[in-house]
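Whiteboard transcription, Tuesday session. T.W. wrote the structure tokens on the left side:
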């Protein structure tokens, strides 16, 4: 049985999980960022896997665009794995609807908890008064998460091999659906999201598309040595080097690869990342991110 696994990853968590799935399933691994160049994406395999990080309780904008381009998937067994730091929320339901519009059926959607790689409110009462800070995870916390993730992946492999049908993990569904019903996502949440991203203007973009403008909050500090890693690692070519300094072009995916992989920790996002430990999955290297595995 032929299997293709498409993946998107900013800091290597989803790539590490995609690799762990690919080996026992004898799957080909394809980077979503590369597959998007085609007008239509026709996997042509019996099983199709999609591995991605959960963003803002749903899926990354780039994964939405990818799923909208899928064609010829009517007969394929489709499974999705979302790596997350807190909760997969309704990511799989959201993806299942897009896949249904593309003519397919998402048979299995399962989350894998991994280190959280983004900014969030500081813990406790401080969180009410401070800007969002970059989450830090200690090596021992990471080791526990990776050990649990290995077990979860082994279970997913068994489920995929058994062809399990219509098992979509979902958490906080009622709250998420209520927030959609009240249109909070496109109003209040969108304005908070854009504020975190440093964008001061108004936009008609839908909430999921607003990530493109959130690169306004990136700045580069004096540690920058002009190596160009940030521009090379960006999955969507959002960074141009001008006088050997990165400049963001406002079609960002907000994957945090530039900030997390900069060898000098010279990229900051707002005021909540300075002095905070950078993260990437320890088994994934910069060259893994730059080349297709
Ligand atoms: C823009 C952004 C939004 C995120 N939103 C969520 C979220 O809503 N829920 C969650 O549990 N984790 C969230 N995360 C954390 C990631 O899903 C998690 O760390 C993931 O494993 C990162 O995978 P990667 O290394 O493959 O990029 C978010 C991360 C980013 C960068
Ligand atoms: S990766 Fe870091 S040091 Fe290298 S050019 Fe980008 S900001 Fe500067
Ligand atoms: S600019 Fe940075 S955060 Fe935005 S897509 Fe590129 S690497 Fe990811």
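and on the right, the sequence the group agreed on:
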């Amino acid at each position: 049985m032929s299997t293709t696994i498409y993946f998107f990853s900013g800091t290597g968590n989803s790539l590490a999980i995609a690799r762990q799935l690919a080996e026992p399933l004898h799957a080909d691994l394809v980077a979503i960022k590369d597959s998007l160049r085609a007008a239509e994406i026709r996997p042509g395999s019996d099983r199709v896997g999609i591995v991605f990080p959960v963003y803002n309780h749903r899926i990354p904008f780039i994964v939405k665009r990818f799923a909208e381009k899928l064609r010829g998937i009517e007969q394929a067994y489709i499974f999705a794995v979302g790596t997350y730091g807190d909760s997969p929320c309704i990511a799989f339901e959201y993806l299942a609807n897009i896949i249904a519009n593309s003519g397919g059926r998402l048979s299995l959607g399962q989350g894998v908890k991994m280190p959280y790689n983004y900014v969030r409110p500081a813990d406790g009462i401080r969180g009410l008064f401070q800007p969002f800070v970059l989450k830090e995870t200690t090596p021992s916390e990471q080791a526990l998460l990776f050990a649990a993730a290995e077990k979860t992946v082994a279970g997913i492999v068994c489920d995929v091999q058994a062809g399990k049908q219509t098992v979509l993990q979902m958490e906080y569904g009622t709250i998420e659906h209520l927030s959609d019903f009240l249109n909070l996502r496109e109003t209040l949440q969108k304005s908070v999201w854009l504020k975190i991203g440093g964008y001061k203007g108004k936009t008609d973009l839908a909430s999921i598309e607003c990530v493109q403008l959130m690169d306004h909050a990136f700045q580069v500090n004096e540690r920058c040595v002009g190596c160009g890693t940030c521009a090379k690692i960006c999955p969507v070519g959002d960074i141009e080097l001008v006088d050997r300094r990165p400049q963001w072009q406002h079609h960002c995916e907000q994957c945090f690869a530039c900030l997390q992989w900069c060898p000098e920790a010279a990229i900051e996002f707002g005021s909540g990342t300075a002095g905070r430990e950078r993260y990437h999955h320890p088994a994934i290297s910069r060259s893994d991110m730059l080349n297709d595995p």
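Someone added at the bottom: DSSP finds ten helices and twelve strands in the chain.
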